[in-house]
Design goal:
The chain is mainly β. The chain has a single domain, classed as Hexapeptide repeat proteins (UDP N-Acetylglucosamine Acyltransferase, domain 1), CATH 2.160.10. Helix content is about 10%, strand content about 30%. The strands form three sheets. A seven-stranded parallel sheet has the order 1-4-7-10-13-16-19, with no helix packed on it. The protein has a seven-stranded parallel sheet with strand order 2-5-8-11-14-17-20.
C-alpha cells in the first residue's frame, strides 16, 4: 500500500511539473512544488528542489525567465517570483524559507501602479542561508555566502560573507569577520 501512495504522489508531482519548460537529467523535485509558468522556467541537471514538508513556489510572470543552473539545491518553503529574470548559477545552495523577488508588485502607497522591476543574478557556488530575502536588482557574486535572516538589496562581491538587513560584510580592524547578534 505504501508503494502505491508513493507512486500516486510521483504522478501528481509530474502533472504539476509539466509547466516547467526544462528539467535536467538527475533533477529531483521532492514534494508538490507549486509552479505558475507564463514565461520560461528551466532547471539544470542534478538539482534538488525541496517542497516537503513546506511547499516551495516557482512563479514566472508573462515573458519572464527563471534559469536554475546545474547541481543547485533549493530547500523547502522557498519562493522564486520573476517578472523579468532570475538566474541562479551552478552549485548554489538556497536554504529553507528563502524569498527571491525581482519585482515590487506595486508602488508604495499606490497599489494600482506597477512596482520597480530589476533582474536578479546569483553566481556560482553561492550559499544562501535560511529565511534570506533577495530583492529586485540583487547581484550576488561567485562563492559568496549570505547568512540566515539577511536581506540582499544590492551587489555582493565574489567570495564575500554577508549578514544583516541590509546584508553587509562585517570586518573588524584586524581584517577578520565580525558577527553581531541581532
Amino acid at each position: 500500500m505504501r508503494r502505491f501512495h508513493r507512486f500516486v504522489d510521483r504522478m501528481r508531482g509530474s502533472v504539476r511539473h509539466r509547466s516547467i519548460d526544462r528539467v535536467g537529467r538527475g533533477t529531483t523535485i521532492a514534494g508538490c512544488l507549486d509552479v505558475e509558468n507564463n514565461g520560461t522556467i528551466q532547471i539544470g541537471e542534478d538539482c534538488y528542489l525541496g517542497s516537503h514538508p513546506i511547499q516551495s513556489h516557482l512563479v514566472a510572470m508573462d515573458d519572464a525567465t527563471i534559469l536554475i543552473g546545474d547541481r543547485v539545491f533549493i530547500s523547502y518553503g522557498a519562493a522564486l517570483s520573476a517578472t523579468r529574470s532570475i538566474q541562479i548559477g551552478d552549485d548554489t545552495r538556497i536554504g529553507p524559507f528563502s524569498l527571491i523577488l525581482d519585482n515590487d508588485y506595486h508602488r508604495v502607497g499606490d497599489r494600482e501602479s506597477p512596482g520597480v522591476i530589476a533582474p536578479i543574478e546569483i553566481g556560482r557556488n553561492v550559499l544562501i542561508g535560511t529565511r534570506v530575502s533577495i530583492l529586485r536588482g540583487a547581484r550576488i557574486g561567485d562563492g559568496a555566502c549570505v547568512m540566515s535572516g539577511s536581506t540582499v538589496a544590492g551587489i555582493i562581491a565574489n567570495r564575500a560573507v554577508v549578514s544583516g538587513v541590509p546584508a553587509r560584510v562585517r570586518v573588524d580592524g584586524r581584517g577578520s569577520l565580525h558577527w553581531r547578534a541581532r
